[in-house]
Amino acid sequence: MTDEPFKKRRTVIAAIVIASGLLAACGGDDTEDTATAAPAVAAASTAAVAIDPAVLKTQASNFRTLGMPDDWNNFGKFFDAMCTSAGAGCVGTGVGPNRFDTDMSSAEEIAAFKAETEDPAVCADIGIAFGQVAEAEGVLLNYLPAAAAVLPAAYKSEKGGWVASATGVISFVVNTDVIKNVPATWADLKKPEYKGKISISNPATSGTGQAMVFSSAAALGQGKIDLDGAMKYWEEMYTLGQINEAEYSNAGLERGETPITIRYDYVGLIAAKGINDKAGRDVISVTIPDDGGVYAPSATMCNKVTDSPELAKAILDYTLSDEGQLVFAEYGARPIRYVLGDLEVPAALKANWLADAEYAKVISYPDNEWPNPPDVADRWESEVLA
Questions:
Q1: The predicted structure's pLDDT at residue 77
Q2: What pLDDT digit, counting tens, does each position of 9-51 carry?
Q3: How does DSSP classify residue 147?
Q4: Helix, strand, or coil (residue 164)
């Protein structure tokens, strides 16, 4: 990990290869998968996890995760707490002695689930839009936590294997030493004064980038998702020269090299705290666009070929437990059950959140299916970047 707190980093070549593979898999003939994947089409098991502690400890003695580094969504503390709660006796933080994590994008994680045969990863963190891709690829564990009953269809796999965990909202993170007039709306970002100053994540490979597209689409559609309008908007942003092509980092934000970045609210707040504390004053501001956005959850997905299926079930269960949800809240993310009105979050944990009033025009995604990430990636490359 660098000083960038985001989990969505990859080389351009790897991203293109993986994105192309997912496009082919989702758009092509899937008869081979359906012919051999009887367990994947069966109803998901929702039986309570009743695990012999010795079995769980054995499975948790050495395990791998993907895209779940300690400093993303508080996963270091999440795994420590889960291990204690489940009686697994494992240690979740750091590089061992029990858990090993490889930081990957959502697309890369799905490709790894499909390709790995030796020491396959147990679970991974994905952007919610990639859940349907994981389903189409047939890589998911046939298990759904009982607590998933409170989740709407868009926030879980009907067949099991992934559930929404916590959610953020896309925000504008701004170095106010460089940007004196902080943008308030998506329309503001097109102003000449912001030319070459805006850093974004690539929607072709990044869950953050996809959430950015959906949020701008929600604002342009005034509460409805206008993807056509969003693609035209971003094409214009590139035509106007607003986008700074430098790779984002907290250090670059602090130095003013990328003085406006579009990131999840809680990720921006963590970056702002670090920079502001160092400066001894408020340098970085984090705001939700006045014209709206969309809740874009992360999700926990688990691997159908893992060597530790009971541990995977325990991870999925803990993701939606009161304790697990509050671990995400402590990090600054809004637990998915809180957003759905099914969980109380103590005031002390919400103290560093943005005010609820900033979210007045933020919507939940209105359909049961998010746009397919490979389709969004294809449109981005052919309509925006072309």
A1: 92
A2: 333 323 333 443 443 333 333 333 333 333 333 456 655 456 6
A3: G
A4: strand
308 CB contacts (<8 Å, ≥6 apart)?
Answer: 59, 60, 63, 122
Q: How far is CA 376 from the centre of its chain?
A: 16
Query: Helices 309-320 and 322-331 sit at what angle, rounded to 10 degrees?
Result: 70
Q: Which residues of the chain have pLDDT under 50?
A: 1-42, 48, 95
For every residue of 77-123, DSSP letters joined together read HHHHHHHHHTT-----SSS-SSEEEE---HHHHHHHHHH--SS--SE
- Rounded Cα distance between 89 and 82, Å, is 10
Pairing, β 293-302 against β 162-175: antiparallel
Beta pairing partners, 362? 293
What is the pTM assigned to this prediction? 0.82
Q: Which residue from 142, 87, 164, 169 is spatially nearest to 325, judged by alpha carbons?
A: 164
- Greatest Cα pair distance in the chain: 63
DSSP-derived pairing of the beta strands 293-302 and 123-127: antiparallel
233 in Cβ contact with 220 (< 8 Å): yes
Q: Which residue shows structure tokens 């916590």?
A: 166
CA distances from 66 to 48, 72, 105, 109, 157 (A): 25, 11, 9, 6, 19
Give residue for tokens 């109803």. Answer: 43
Q: pLDDT value at position 135?
A: 95
pLDDT tens, position by position, 316-361: 999 999 999 999 999 999 999 999 999 999 999 999 899 989 999 9
Q: Which of 182, 143, 139, 179 is nearest to 319 (CA)?
A: 143
Burial (0-12, 13-18, 19+ Cβ within 10 Å), 192: exposed
Predicted local confidence at residue 13, as pLDDT: 29
Averaged pLDDT score across all residues of the chain:
85
Determine contact, residues 203/213, Cβ cutoff 8 Å: yes
Residue 380 is given by DSSP the state I
* Structural contact between residues 114 and 305, judged by C-beta atoms closer than 8 angstroms: no
- Residue 5 CB neighbours (<10 A): 20
pLDDT at 50: 62
Nearest to 59 by CA among 35, 37, 86: 86
Six-digit token string for 207: 């869950």
